[in-house]
């Protein structure tokens, strides 16, 4: 049995019951992704060696893009990276507004020791290193001017790490956060930490403490991200991995917002080498990449990301990494792995009821709801499987071969469109047009 904590096992099944990808323990039921995972590890190695890199995970609905992205983040944390997982939203994440992107990225910062909102933790690690460096340099930690010496090191270190490009307000806020914590004024320090995280709801009185006005805007947001990256590395992490999940959501946005968002992605790709140690991961459907409504409609971005195939082969080292759809055998392997780790006090009862033969039948029945297309049913299949595992473990008289349990649970809007053979988005007359390049 895979070596997982009870907490992680419970997390896995609770998330699968809701039809969403778990955030931990994914390796326990990962199958058929060794090649893709190896390529993601290669990119992590590049980032660890101070390269700025990006990768686009390409796959149809149900191909496991989110699963692969989440697994990449777990691998990144195991390799000493900080991470952030951001889902594209119709309402509060427009990719041309870099302040939106920055806020989401920083709010979702995580490490192997802090699940979310890890900026404060990372800053504390960095400041502790500055204090240790001051002491190693001969400073007396009991001297009255010790804090002033540490502050000076914080400012000079940030300037050195960013090549002097750190925004002045960022330096002011970091200086004030350190001073406030030394004075045990933690609420005031927390307010400034919120401001540094991109919050637009910090009181003017808190901003005055640091001598700043306004909020982090779109024009300077990427400079702030460069500063956060530099601090993350200076605190002991190898770099930062950012996932932007469900990029195809942009296809449902208004034409002008789509155009600006795609241009924003182009700018990020073009500037990747200016962010050593930063690894961007985007996930998207073929429609996102191949239609004029998406990447294909912006020539410079399409030229950078274009998928090249030789026969049936696609080089995994090109910008788009193609994820293969599930097949019946892979679904069965996942089911058997989940059955193995399912938490129960009566494993014999579970395995006698949820047999390999029953799993074969479940694959067939669930797939029928999608016209036999196995590639788009993993979420539904896993929800049904976990429901049956629950019943088999808790109901002594339940017999899945007799009592069924094959009916599909409620479908999402996207699944209904796929089932009915409809495109991911409603066509518009402007879909045939190309987007203008903006800077």
UniProtKB/TrEMBL annotation:
SUPFAM superfamilies: P-loop containing nucleoside triphosphate hydrolases
Pfam families from the UniProt entry: BrxC_BrxD (PF10923)
InterPro entries in alphabetical order: BrxD (IPR021228), P-loop_NTPase (IPR027417)
NCBIfam families named in the record: BREX_BrxD
Protein name per its UniProtKB record: ATP-binding protein
């Amino acid at each position: 049995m895979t070596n997982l904590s009870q907490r992680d096992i419970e997390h896995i099944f609770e998330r699968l019951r809701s039809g969403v990808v778990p955030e931990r323990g994914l390796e326990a039921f990962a199958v058929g992704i060794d090649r893709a995972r190896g390529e993601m590890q290669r990119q992590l190695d590049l980032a660890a060696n101070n390269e700025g890199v990006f990768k686009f995970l390409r796959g149809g609905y149900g191909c496991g893009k989110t699963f692969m992205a989440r697994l990449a983040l777990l691998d990144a944390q195991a390799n000493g990276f900080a991470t952030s997982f951001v889902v594209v939203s119709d309402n509060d994440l427009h990719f041309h507004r870099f302040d939106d992107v920055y806020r989401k990225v920083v709010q979702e910062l995580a490490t192997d020791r802090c699940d979310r909102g890890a900026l404060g933790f990372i800053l504390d690690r960095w400041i502790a290193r500055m204090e240790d460096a001051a002491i190693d340099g001969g400073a007396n930690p009991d001297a009255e001017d010790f804090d002033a010496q540490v502050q000076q090191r914080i400012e000079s270190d940030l300037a050195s790490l960013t090549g002097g490009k750190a925004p002045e307000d960022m330096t002011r806020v970091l200086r004030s956060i350190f001073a406030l914590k030394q004075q045990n004024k933690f609420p005031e320090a927390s307010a400034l930490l919120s401001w540094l995280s991109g919050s637009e709801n910090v009181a003017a009185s808190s901003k005055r403490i640091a001598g700043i006005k306004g909020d982090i805007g779109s024009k300077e947001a990427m400079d702030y991200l460069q500063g956060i990256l530099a601090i993350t590395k200076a605190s002991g992490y190898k770099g930062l991995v950012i996932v932007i999940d469900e990029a195809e959501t942009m296809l449902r946005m208004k034409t002008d917002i789509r155009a600006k968002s795609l241009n924003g992605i182009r700018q990020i790709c073009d500037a990747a080498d200016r962010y050593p140690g930063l690894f961007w991961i985007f996930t998207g459907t073929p429609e996102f990449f191949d239609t004029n409504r998406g990447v294909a409609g912006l020539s410079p971005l399409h030229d950078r990301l274009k998928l090249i195939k030789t026969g049936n082969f696609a080089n995994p080292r090109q910008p788009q990494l193609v994820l293969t759809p599930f097949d019946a055998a892979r679904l069965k392997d996942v089911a058997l792995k989940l059955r193995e780790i399912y938490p129960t006090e009566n494993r014999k009862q579970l395995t006698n009821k949820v047999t390999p033969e029953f799993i074969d039948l479940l694959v067939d029945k669930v797939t029928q709801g999608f016209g036999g297309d196995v590639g788009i049913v993993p979420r539904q299949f896993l929800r049904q499987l976990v429901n049956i595992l629950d019943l088999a473990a808790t109901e002594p008289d339940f017999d899945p071969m007799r009592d069924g349990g094959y009916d599909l649970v409620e479908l999402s809007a996207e699944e209904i469109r796929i089932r009915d053979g409809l495109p991911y988005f409603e066509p518009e007359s402007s879909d045939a047009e190309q987007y203008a390049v903006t800077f």
